[in-house]
Amino acid sequence: MMEHTILLLQPIEKHDSRTWTDYNCVDDCLEGVCKVYEEFLKKTSPGSPSITYDITHLFTFIDRLNDLSVLVYDTETSLYTPHDKSWIKDRIFEFLRGHARGDQNSDDDDEEDDEDVLEVIDEFFVVNIC
Fold first, then answer.
1. Higher-confidence residue: 48 or 128?
2. Span 30-50, average pLDDT
3. How far is 37 from 54, CA to CA, in rounded Å?
4. Which of 87, 97, 113, 117 could pair covalently with 128 via S-S, beta carbons 3.0-4.6 A apart?
């Protein structure tokens, strides 16, 4: 079942830095959070042909954001349920672990996913961005 999800992001204290993005499901939103971090890495390391990060770097980035939350639509109540950074990090961990184990559907694969290489070593995730 698709759970419409809205990502609310405020990277710095300035109110005009607030932004939001909507997604068809929670997994797409979690991938969106990872992409926000990857874009940040690309901007801060423009000359690097590839960038490697692990989940602890991603979580530190999330913690340093002024605000990050999601609203997930509940079809039973017809309401959006808010979730905080802690919930997002827990879901990202499960999302990445699922991808590392090959639990993702082949229908969800696209060319961008092929560029990211995900390894799992004792629950330690490493992502290479090409």
1. 48
2. 91
3. 11
4. 117
- Rounded CA-CA distance 59/88 in Å is 10
Please determine, for residue 112, whether its predicted confidence score (pLDDT) is greater than 80. Answer: no
pLDDT band at 80 (very low <50, low <70, confident <90, very high): very high
Which residues lie across from 23 on neighbouring strands? 5
- Residue reference for tokens 């969106």: 32
115, 130 Cβ separation under 8 angstroms: yes
SS (H, E, C) the chain: CCCCEEEEEECCCCHHHCEEEEECCHHHHHHHHHHHHHHHHHHHCCCCCCEEEEHHHHHHHHHHCCEEEEEEEECCCCEEEEECHHHHHHHHHHHHHHHHCCCCCHHHCCHHHHHEEEEEECCEEEEEEC
**What six digits make up the tokens of 111?**
């060319």
> Does residue 47 have a pLDDT over 90?
no
The CB density around residue 87, as the number of other CB atoms within 10 Å, is 14
Domains of the chain: 5-129 (3.30.2260.10)
